Amino acid sequence: MDDTLSKQIRAARPPKPIRQAGQSMGWVREMEPDGQGGLIPARTYFLVGSECRFSCSMCDLWKYTLTQDRTPIGSLASQIADLNRQVDALPPQARPREWLKLYNAANFFDPASVDPGEYPAILKQCEGFERLVVENHASLLSSSKTQQLVRRFRDGFDGELELALGLESIEPNAMRWLNKSMSLDQFQAALEFLRSEQIFVRVFVLLQPMGTPIDESVDWAVASCQAAARWGAQRISLIPTRAGNGFMEDLASRGLWQAPRASQLESALEQLLGHSQGSSIYTADLWDWDSICGICSHCGPSRLERLQRMNNTQRMEASEVKQHCACERVPFH
Ligand code: SF4
Ligand SMILES: [Zn+2]
Question: Which ligand 1 atom lies nearest to the CA of residue 106?
């Protein structure tokens, strides 16, 4: 980790919202391609726990964390139980085929974020789901202690485990700016460990992170996604880099970073699906679609629907709107 850069990143943050232990940030449910030509419902629970120990420069997840250094034991299982009650009242045995993502805005296998003593209570709340997805930093997986925790959690779950890891970018300038505290060797070793343990892998890649020239950013995003697939990731999600943590706004005001446009996300997904061998699933992250640059009320909804269909079918689809709407002709500034 670059201490100077970490200090700059943290100093740029606006005040942190106060969060209460035991109170989640809610949930969403969406369909995901299941890798066999079908779709599977996946719900995501946004859990509130202690803050991540890293200081990645694009990250705004610290806004959804507590001020205390350790997540109070019991508070995650109670959030999951509460969300289970909100989403449906079905007992575990009656649940239809469904996946559950537990996103705690930090590293699931960091004992400060998720106390291993809480694993049984968490797993109890996750009974009946076909697959559990949790997030973790790849570099932590090189420690044998963390590997033991991953095995322990997996062995306690009567279903499939998937880990979600941020690769972000393989572009050298972006890697320096991202302050990710991780080498590509560490990332590949993490994927190798997970493969050897029969644990599924999803990888996050950023579109146009700081440091990458704008006219190269689609190519680097595609190359980063394809590298993750070569190294064994089953699913790769491409996320437009966004502002919102103070540091990204600072970079933008100094002309060092610009938010990506919808057309770039479309181009990247088109290239990925156009060259896909079918062994990995590529999706464009659409959670923040309404705030992406380069759309308007005329073209935005149909472009979103097209990307959703491409995500779901994993097939290229011709675009009727892209490049033809007046909003797409607004030049880069
Ligand atoms: S490891 Fe994840 S949660 Fe932690 S700072 Fe980086 S992006 Fe944010
Ligand atoms: Zn438009």
Answer: 3
d(CA 114, CA 70): 8
Give residue 55 CA to ligand 1 midpoint distance, Å.
6
Stretches where the chain sits below pLDDT 70 are 1, 90-93, 321-324, 329-333
Q: State the distance from the centre of ligand 1 to the C-alpha of 14, rounded, in angstroms.
A: 17
Domains contained in the chain, CATH given: 3-329 (3.20.20.70)
**Which atom in ligand 1 lies closest to the alpha carbon of residue 55?**
5
Which residue from 92, 75, 73 is spatially nearest to 24, judged by alpha carbons? 75
Q: 162 burial class (0-12, 13-18, 19+ CB within 10 angstroms)?
A: middle
The end-to-end CA distance of the chain, in Å, is 32
- The DSSP annotation for 155-183 comes to HT-SSEEEEEEEEE---HHHHHHHT----
DSSP 140: G
Supply the pLDDT for residue 323: 61
Ligand 1 and 137: CB distance under 6 A: yes
Read off the tokens for 251.
């970079």
Contact 41, 98 (CB under 8 A): yes
The amino acid at 100: L
